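pinning this so it doesn't scroll away 📌
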Amino acid sequence: MNVCYVLKELERVPEEKIRLVHHGFRFADFDEVPFENVDALRTKYDVGGSAPVIGVIARYVEWKGIEYIVEAAETVLREYPDALFIFANARGDPTIRAAVRKLPLRNYREIPFEPDLFALYAVFDVYVHIPIDPRIEAFGQTYVEALIAGVPSVFTLSGVGREFIRDGRNALVVPHRDPARTAEAILRILADDGLARRLSQAGRGGTSSRSSAQREW
């Protein structure tokens, strides 16, 4: 609906020229991820015994909020010094890359491109996606993917996320451009198995293949 708003209200495109095409997602692609594929990615990116793993899938562009995630990471690492932040689709603005690389080397990985997206989501214990304002994300497929994958998530509301993300129900919602609240939400999920399980199950519509046994840090 965000794209419709831009076309109609900002670009003044006649409504009769607009056709809404809904995305489709195959849940089975997320349900049938072989364990060996997940283990292969953990080896490929030297995840090793790092725990917990916090995932980010976003290009290095200013409006994705990566720099706020980096600030939040500094807080999280004080509580979880062995945590690992994975930045996937890590391509773009060198200023953002420089900000990420201020984190301790042992606590982050950058992945320019990973074709096995389904296994990558399965590596994450928490997922973070925090665009910087409500309309900057045109759609935001990653909101849907993270919930289908059953990863407890921290979001700001932008694009399609504004239509179905509910704070405390299927994700934790934080204000835009707020690293302190982002860190607080990540830490809440890491500290509360029950909350993580509820978010995971609600995100998938009540069922989840993820187990709290994965949370061993």
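📌 and the second one:
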Amino acid sequence: MSRLNRITTKAGDGGTTRLGDGTEVQKDHPRVEAMGTVDELNSALGILLAGSEPELPATVYAALAAVQHDLFDLGSELAVPGSPLFPDAALADVEAAAEALNADLPPLAEFVLPGGSPATAACHLARTICRRAERRLITLGHLSDTELRPELGRYLNRLSDLLFICCRCIQRGQHLPELQWDRDRRSTDEDAR
């Protein structure tokens, strides 16, 4: 079965687009913003998975590959208002993956700077896009005519946690130190003068 046989339709040239239920909305509508940011997050994960496979622990790769499918489900639910297309099990899966991956990590004494290896940096970027997707979802939820299932926001919140844990796992898997914030760096420099 062919779902998309015509890509260039010119229908959106006037600044509008159609949702999955046929509703026409402006392309900068909060719903489209949320959908677009979820898509951007999925693309960032695609870059991470495509370019860093040798650098990623197999457990991280498997967890994030599954997340890509979840994000398509989440985007589908946003695109078809009122249709529960996002599976409830996805939230439990992300929580389980985060717990399993975090189990072997040492506790943190300080905040971690985004960076490290290229794969770690790409994962941090995906984490920050995930946080933005969560904010866009919250903005959409403030509209008086919008009802969103709370599972969507919970999923993005847990996913950002999972992505942070994945950053730590990637860095550790490459036997590289974590870049931790040095909150005292300026006072140490000034004391030495």
